[in-house]
Amino acid sequence: MYRRSLLMLTASACLAIAAAAPARAANPQVDLDTSAGRIRIELYPDAAPKTVDNFLAYVKAKHYDGTQFHRVIKGFMIQGGGYDADFKEKPTKAPVRNEAEQSSKAGLLNVPGTIAMARTPDPHSATAQFFINVGDNKALNFPSRDGYGYTVFGKVVDGMDIVNKIATTPTGSGGPFPTDVPTQRVLIKSATVVAPN
Questions:
Q1: Which of 26, 50, 28 is CA-nearest to residue 191?
Q2: Environment class of residue 81 by beta-carbon count within 10 Å: exposed (0-12), middle (13-18) or buried (19+)?
């Protein structure tokens, strides 16, 4: 009887502790409603906090609405977030510091389905443009050739078929770009935070 009471007390204590502990927030998710279909992305703030905050700030500011996937390379990646349908470059905030080392150590690599920040040769130059990997792009992982690599901060959790469809669309020249532009524009009609509510 004593043992049973002790077990019941222990179970009750565990439940009380669990109830008192703060619930861990779910990872944020973002829907990209594109002209090719919907892509849902889950973001990982524990692995790349500054990058996720930066991306979400652009989403909430409606920066991505009306932009296009302006660079598409079959077997490599699809890139967007910087240019509207008329190839006008959208203004951006200050660059975000490269977090590729941290996100890599957390297990986020440039493999098919992950989303990473696009940048110039300056490792700390990423602003709004991003890309979704469609190949296993080991050369982009930390430390890469420049000692940094490209920060992965999330992955596609629904709509990878849409990503692959975009990745195989015919390309040519467009706007200021001589190659790799979809001949039929692929637009991000809207980007919306869908979780957590």
A1: 28
A2: buried
